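Exercise: predict the fold of this chain.
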Amino acid sequence: MTQVMKGVRVLEVAQFTFVPAAGAILADWGADVIKIEHPVRGDTQRGFVKMGGVDTNPNRSPFVEHPNRGKRSVGVDISTPEGMEVIYELAKTADVFLTNYLPRQRQKMGFDIEHIRKINPNIIYARGSAFGDKGRLWLMRPDGHLAYRAPVSNADDLLGYLRRVVGKANS
């Protein structure tokens, strides 16, 4: 594979699949991707033993390996000032910062765009969330129960649901 990203350093503070998959592609293309994980449990997705009805091996799960291939992993407790100092030191030498934490969490913990750009004004700051920028979307179903949808990945399902709700309300 062509190493078009060779020489580019990526700092990834993300969990699950959505943004880590982007980091994996950058690693495939030659980037040096440093993934930050919790020092004890790692990426939260590592703890899943069943996904979509499929049993996984907690020591070697494709749900973790696929979006994290080709990366270096560092255990850092980003909830502590010492952990954030490590993030800031790594951000000084990074070309790209990837995250999928939501805005409030990024700001509270100190790795929002303002904090990271203060340390490295030239860094490319990329964020993404499968749930959009505001998080999960909760809807009231016609039976009175709450249901959540992921507005980005289930947009067609969400529109169909809203059409059914509006249609029942107007009949």
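Check your answer against the key: The beta strands are 9-13, 32-37, 50-51, 54-55, 72-75, 96-99, 124-127, 137-140, 146-149.
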